[in-house]
Amino acid sequence: MTKVIVLDRDGVINEDSDAFIKSADEWGPVEGSLEAIRMLKEAGWKVAVATNQSGIKRGYYDRATLSAMHQKMQRLLAPYSVDWISFAPYLGEDGSPARKPGTGMLQSIEKALGCSLQGAPMVGDTLGDIKAALRQGMRPHLVRSGKGERTLSTQDPLLQSIPVHVNLLALVRHLLAEENL
Question: What predicted TM-score, i.e. pTM, was given to this entire model?
Answer without folding.
Answer: 0.97
